[in-house]
Amino acid sequence: MPTPLSIIILTYNEADVLAPTMQAAALVGDEVLVVDSFSEDQTVSIAKAHGATRIEMRAFKNWADQRNWAMEQSQHPWVLFIDADEVLDEQLIKVLQQWKSETHTNKEHYWGLRRTHFFMGRAMRFSGLQSDVVVRLFHHTRRYSDCEVHEKINVPKPHPLPGHLQHYSFKNWDQWNKKQRAYASRSAKDHQARTGTIGLFHTAVKPAFRFFKHFVLRLGFLDGNAGFWYSISMAQGVYWRYVELKKLRHS
Predict the structure, then answer these.
(1) What letter would DSSP give residue 36?
(2) Residues 6+ apart with CB under 8 A from 110
(3) Among 3.40.710.10, 3.90.550.10, 3.20.20.60, 3.30.565.10, what is the CATH number of 6-167?
């Protein structure tokens, strides 16, 4: 017996990246549910024009909260989450179509997708991104962990389905830095309870090690110039996290 699938996409001001995401999702989803946080650009009209079967508007608290709420709205019991800047590649589309043709009844089952990240126009093969597998396909009764950033389903990392989820998170440096600062601000809240007095260890040693981890240990140098700048931005993200945590503690 075939298994219908709801694809869920969370959006906020995604007009410049959303169309290809929607077009690929429409080839797979029996329902394509867009949950928008009151975008101020053409996100909603683009979603409607490219295959959204339903659009819900809801104020944004954090990603985990938004994802958990969205699952409660899904028409079908099996859901697939795709970010607004992610595109299913041709192989993954075919694999998911095959998945839908099969019967799935065990609510405990889940599946991972392998992501290919594009940074500064380059498909990243190293830099710590080579093993990025995200759990995105599962029964809608599961719930994301309650945190501000890097929300996840708390299950062991699975072997990914064939194909790739192409992730286009980098648009330009202004956009990227704003995104990293916003992540740092939210990450500070997650680290509040488990971080002691902030000192040079947090603002110098940890950022330096993060650069070393991505550029050397995770072979970022093999990604060339993009690998170098990605590693730098990861180090900056750690530094900004503790800057934001200092602000949080003095507010």
Answers:
(1) E
(2) 135, 137, 138, 139, 142, 153, 155, 158
(3) 3.90.550.10
Give me the pLDDT at residue 55, please: 98
SS3 237: helix
CA–CA gap between residue 44 and residue 219 (Å, rounded): 40
Tell me the pLDDT tens digit for each residue of 187-239.
999 999 899 999 999 999 999 999 999 999 999 999 999 999 999 999 999 99
| Sign of the CA dihedral running 239, 245, 246, 248 | positive
**CB 133 within 8 Å of CB 160:** yes
Buried b vs exposed e over 76-103: b needs ≥16 C-beta within 10 Å? bbbbbbbbbbbbbbeebbebbeebbeee
Rounded Cα distance, 103 and 109, in Å: 12
Q: Is the dihedral of CA 65, 66, 69, 71 positive or negative?
A: negative
Residue-level pLDDT at 150? 85
Do residues 145 and 151 make contact, with C-beta atoms less than 8 angstroms apart?
A: yes
Q: Where does CATH 3.90.550.10 sit in the chain?
A: 6-167
Per-residue pLDDT tens digits for 106-134: 999 999 999 999 999 999 999 999 999 99
Please report how the helices 224-249 and 173-191 are oriented relative to each other, as an axis angle in degrees rounded to 10: 40
Residue 72: CA count within 13 A, CB half-sphere: 9
Q: Is the pTM of this model over 0.90?
A: yes
Answer whether residue 20 shows pLDDT above 90: yes
